[in-house]
Amino acid sequence: MGVVLLVQDTTSFDFSHHPAVAGMGPLENVHCQGFFAHSTLAVSDEGLPLGVLEQQVWVRLASETGKARQRHERAFTDKESYKWVVGLPALPRTETSPQFITIADRESHIYEFLDEVLQRQMDFIVRATSARSFTQDGQDVFEVLAQQPIQARYSLPLQRRPDREARDAQVEVRFASIVLRRPKRAVTERETLTMQVVEVHEPTPPTGQEAVHWVLLTSLPMHTFEQAQTLIRFYTYRWLIERFHYTLKSGCKIEERQLRDEKRLACLLAVFSLVAWKLLWITYQARQTPDAPCTVVLLPTEWQALYAFIHRTQRLPSTPPTLQTAVRWLAQLGGFLGRKADGEPGVKVLWRGWTRLQDIAATWSIIHPSPN
After folding, report:
1. Total-model pTM
2. 289-367: CATH topology
3. Higher-confidence position of 342 and 15
4. What are 345-353's contacts with CB under 8 Å, separation 24+?
């Protein structure tokens, strides 16, 4: 039985610059108009995007804005935050089913959601928010961790993000077992939830860099540092859902599409989501299996057209190139220079290259029709 990570997150699509689009609603800023999407991305335990399992699209009603103080009066199933439960795919469970672990950021730190995950015989890794949950002794989970000894120190690799370069963070790790009591507002059968909590803290970040500080709630066993290290590595894959949303906005440029209403944009989002996932998959598959044949991700016409265009020849090799080689050629179409300091190509240049390849491959198919 393997492990499948269910990484969830929400993003908004802003169409304030297209006021003629019908069916839009207020976003985080009431002066901005658009719609929301909440996606569940399946990821392997090695960080390979496997596909989009669930996607919710909705428009926030203008009548619902400004009612944050009334949220405790509403049932959990009637709240927008119920999206986290809907984001859990209804997959059949058998003896051979993988272990499903849902991963989410602080917004999902909700007692009812954690309880629902356990009821579905799944596991969770959720980043905690201070003063959101309390133990039977009345302590906040952050207070509990502050009393724990440091279990280990190690170097945690951080991927490059728009707000920082890739770097290694020297972190301290603490963990403990806790019993959370049910909040008064919650309506669940369980009065308590037993789980583990792990703290990842960077005491001395580089100058000008924000320190890493994660407090992670989990249903996974936590008895050794090796188990904690695996859990932390799983949580770092949450970055993939942000890359997925980035590809939809900066690659597919869905916010620049000029369709007439929200329903048509939602349909377009569904199509673009498949494209965005495939680009993520190609990016990370090439890093994990660089020597595999490129046919694992490219059709014959695609790799043949790519080879012919890059080498300016119609004489093809007897065997397809490796995946890493083909992906670097694909990135080259998108403007990737391939210098030593450039590292491996990212999603943005691959999107541009992929878009060009579709036109090149279409032309190739006309000149070299399939014998079938």
Report:
1. 0.90
2. Transferase Inhibitor Protein From Tn5; Chain A, domain2 (1.10.740)
3. 15
4. 345/283, 346/283, 347/243, 347/246, 347/247, 347/251, 347/279, 347/280, 347/283, 348/247, 348/250, 348/251, 350/279, 350/282, 350/283, 351/247, 351/250, 351/251, 351/252, 351/279, 352/251
